[in-house]
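4.2 Preliminary Data

To establish feasibility before requesting continued support, the project team ran the inverse folding procedure on a target of 258 residues. The structure was first converted into the token representation described in Section 3, and no sequence information of any kind was made available to the design step. The complete token record follows.
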């Protein structure tokens, strides 16, 4: 039997040789080929614990496929991208604000629950990427909050678990006790709890969330207005105590909206 290290080396060598093929097939005109190519890329990367060099073009093609008319292509591309950011060495900083986040903002309105589920998972992966700055992380939290408020019970559960996971890591690995899982995200749900860690991550971004809501609440674009209302709604349901420190801003926001 081959050792785990030997197997991984073989997988890595194989993957490096497969990458040019994946790069080509991601651009294929057939949706099924795009889907299988994205799945192949994600599978290759999941089997490698270290880093392998992936061309910027691969990420570019995945981002492009995230806007495909077929939801399965979009979902597979988002899933592969979320896996890739944990395994690549190439610099995605150039893509982040210009291409990745704008596409993610479009996907928060996606009608497919499969795409929304993959979006939340990808946001979690991207949140911890070294090249992601605080402003980008704030946008990722906004996306998770938006999807949480605007989705099915299973996706809401994924959103809350993601916030809990992010918050726990922010607390240096101190996992929350079961007793802290006492807050319900939505009254109509079968108890989707958020931990103290999850509340922490929402609270830590409040200082930037509220001004964004204030700016977008009367935007001429209905997507911005809906985004603002859903973020406020999610905060109220998830962690209403965080609103207390922003009472003055909320009063001004109310006056602006009236």
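Position-by-position output of the design step:
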């Amino acid at each position: 039997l081959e050792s785990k290290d030997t197997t991984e080396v073989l997988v890595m060598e194989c993957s490096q040789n497969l990458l040019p093929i994946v790069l080509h097939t991601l651009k294929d005109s057939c949706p099924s080929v795009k889907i299988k190519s994205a799945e192949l890329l994600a599978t290759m990367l999941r089997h490698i614990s270290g880093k392998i060099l992936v061309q910027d073009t691969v990420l570019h093609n995945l981002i492009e496929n995230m806007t495909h008319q077929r939801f399965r292509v979009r979902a597979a591309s988002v899933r592969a991208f979320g896996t890739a950011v944990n395994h690549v060495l190439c610099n995605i900083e150039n893509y982040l604000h210009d291409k990745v986040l704008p596409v993610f903002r479009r996907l928060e309105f996606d009608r497919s629950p499969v795409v929304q589920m993959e979006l939340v998972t990808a946001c979690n992966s991207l949140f911890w990427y070294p090249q992601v700055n605080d402003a980008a992380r704030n946008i990722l939290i906004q996306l998770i909050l938006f999807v949480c408020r605007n989705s099915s019970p299973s996706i809401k559960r994924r959103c809350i678990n993601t916030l809990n996971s992010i918050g726990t890591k922010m607390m240096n690995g101190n996992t929350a006790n079961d007793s802290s899982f006492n807050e319900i995200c939505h009254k109509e749900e079968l108890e989707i709890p958020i931990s103290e860690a999850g509340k922490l991550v929402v609270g830590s971004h409040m200082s930037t969330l509220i001004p964004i809501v204030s700016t977008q609440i009367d935007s001429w674009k209905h997507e911005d207005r809906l985004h603002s209302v859903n973020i406020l709604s999610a905060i109220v349901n998830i962690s209403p105590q965080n609103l207390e420190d922003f009472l003055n801003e909320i009063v001004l926001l109310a006056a602006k909206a009236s």
